[in-house]
Amino acid sequence: MEIETRTALVTGAGGLIGADCVAHLLAQGWRVAALDRDRAALERLGAPAGGDLLRLEADVADESAVARALAELDDWAGQLDLLVNNAGIADPVSGAIEDLSLDDWNRRIAVNLTGPFLMTKHCVPLLRAAKGSIVNVASTRAIMSEPQTEAYAAAKGGLVALTHATAISLGPDIRVNAVAPGWISDADDLSPADHVQHPAGRVGTPRDVAEAVAYLAGAGFVTGAVLVLDGGMTRKMIYAD
């Protein structure tokens, strides 16, 4: 019996987490459309032998660019089973709120929150036809904060709310979930202190996120959920000595 190839669209595909999501899904037999505003980052993505990869250059905060990218994906695959809303401005620190410009605030909200809204809006017809799913990449900063991260935290908190709102609006045809990563790194110079502060005993890796995304893509009875990927950090009480 022939098994139909599933199609995924990953935004922010040229970044740390996005690139690993692309690689992991390709390795699992998915056909993947990789979307990023950085053409050079897209060109660095490699497809395994037999892998089916489409590179789409677009800014998720630009609705006309999103619409063009979706038209190209439709021509290429004719279906969409999974949308991974991963694109975002990753640096959470935007400075003191009294010095934060409206332009900087708006850009962070546009990419980290409006972008997932636009991608979801334009992907719904294809996802509904395939009974597909959406996985939003939020952050533990949606539920806890460091100083001077107001724009990032607000956007990621909004993305968590968008997740459960769309899960209700789009179900049962489309499932919508989120992952909320904590400290994720592929650096080889992390210290023992970096790892030991996590109850799981280590800092997270991009593959941890990719595996969680793949799990949620196949978890047919899970929708509206936020899967926290932080090695237990948000459950750890921290007191000064």
Main attributes of the structure:
Sc_DH/Rdtase_CS; globular; 2-(S)-hydroxypropyl-CoM dehydrogenase activity; 241 residues; seven-stranded parallel beta sheet; 7 strands; SDR_fam; 15% strand; transmembrane helix; Rossmann fold; EC 1.1.1.269
Shape: globular
CATH top level assignment:
Alpha Beta
> In CATH terms, what is the fold-level topology?
Rossmann fold
Low-confidence stretches: none
Report strand %: 15-25%
Largest sheet: 7 strands, parallel
Number of helices: 7
Decide which structural class fits the backbone. alpha/beta
Strand line-up across the major sheet: 3-2-1-4-5-6-7
Radius of gyration: 18 Å
Question: What share of residues is helical?
Answer: 40-55%
How many domains is the backbone divided into?
A: 1
Please give the alpha-carbon distance between the first and last residues: 63 Å
Instruction: Report the strand count.
Output: 7
SSE arrangement, N to C: EHEHEHEHEHEHHE
CATH architecture: 3-Layer(aba) Sandwich
Oligomeric assembly: single chain
**pLDDT average, as an integer?**
95
Enzyme class: oxidoreductase
GO molecular function, one term: 2-(S)-hydroxypropyl-CoM dehydrogenase activity
InterPro entries: NAD(P)-bd_dom_sf, Sc_DH/Rdtase_CS, SDR_fam
Protein name: 2-(S)-hydroxypropyl-CoM dehydrogenase
Describe this structure in words.
This protein is of the alpha/beta class and 241 residues long. It has one domain (7-235): Rossmann fold (3-Layer(aba) Sandwich). Helices cover 42% and strands 15% of the residues. Strands 3-2-1-4-5-6-7 form a 7-stranded parallel β-sheet, sandwiched between helices. Helix 3 packs parallel to helix 4 (102-130). The longest helix is centred in the middle third of the chain and has 29 residues, at 102-130. It is globular. The relative contact order is 0.14. The chain crosses the membrane at residues 212-229. Its EC number is 1.1.1.269.
